[in-house]
Amino acid sequence: MTAAATQPKQTLLHLAGELLTPLPEGALWWAARRLLVVSDLHLEKGSNYAASGQMLPPYDTGATLARIERLCAALAPATVISLGDSFHDRRSESRLPAPYAARIRALTAAQDWVWVEGNHDPDPPADLGGRAAKVLRLGPLVFRHEPEGEAGEVAGHLHPVAKVAGRGRSVRRRCFASDGARLVMPAMGAFAGGLNVLNPAFSTVFPEGCMAFVVGESRVYGVSHRSLLPDGGAGGGPVWRA
């Protein structure tokens, strides 16, 4: 068996006529533009919670950066878009340990890095490199943090997850949500929560429902809308706000 034959099968999706690759790390790869998209990193969420007495392990930023570093080393993107809520709060940058700040500067220096404005981080980082944008339009695609339902839109904010039945039990995993016209990214942050794609919050973005591209350990799996399960009550439970 050749090495190529042992590689996990890649799942591809079409959006506004463009071919995109959802990656098991929770990032999106647009090969034609050598563009990598990550979303909702929520860097320094652990230190934010620690300040209020909720003692989480202080390793979320390092774990999230390590995934991005591995992707950049493997794909050599020309551009990276961080699609909002890159930092958990306005003071996250000031709490960054110096080694983490140096790793972010190395990433922003190595490629064209765009910080898209989020609701947790409306201001771009002051001393970490990169450039800022509220909305970024490239060809037929538009990149913003909060989804508005525009054709060709790639957004984050909602932290989609899918619940799927299989082998006598159900699994709940982060996912990409798309109806072929627009896409919502999963949150990449190590401590980021998630909202079931059957929740009513997704209905304004996908009025006819959506397909889930579910993140597995080594590949992404396409799951039709009819195969998705709610978390609890009808419609996937109460509305959750990112």
Task: Give a written overview of the molecule.
The chain has 242 residues and is α/β, with parallel strands linked by helices. Strands 8, 9, 10, 11, 12, 13, 14, 15, 16 and 17 form a 10-stranded mixed beta sheet that branches. The chain has one domain (12-236): Purple Acid Phosphatase, chain A, domain 2 (4-Layer Sandwich), CATH 3.60.21. It is built from 4 helices and 17 strands.
Tell me what the CATH architecture is: 4-Layer Sandwich
CATH top level is Alpha Beta
Predict the CATH topology.
Purple Acid Phosphatase, chain A, domain 2
Provide the low-confidence segments as ranges. Answer: 1-7, 233-242
Distance between the termini: 45 Å
How would you briefly describe this protein structure?
By secondary structure, the protein is an alpha/beta fold. The protein has one domain: Purple Acid Phosphatase, chain A, domain 2 (4-Layer Sandwich), CATH 3.60.21.
Based on the model shown, name its key terms:
242 residues, alpha/beta, Purple Acid Phosphatase, chain A, domain 2, ten-stranded mixed sheet, seven-stranded mixed sheet, 4 helices, 17 strands, 29% strand, globular, disordered N terminus, disordered C terminus
SSE order and pairing:
Elements: E1 13-15, E2 18-22, E3 28-30, E4 35-38, H1 45-51, H2 60-75, E5 79-82, H3 92-95, H4 98-110, E6 112-116, E7 131-133, E8 136-138, E9 141-143, E10 153-155, E11 160-166, E12 169-178, E13 182-184, E14 195-196, E15 211-215, E16 220-223, E17 228-229
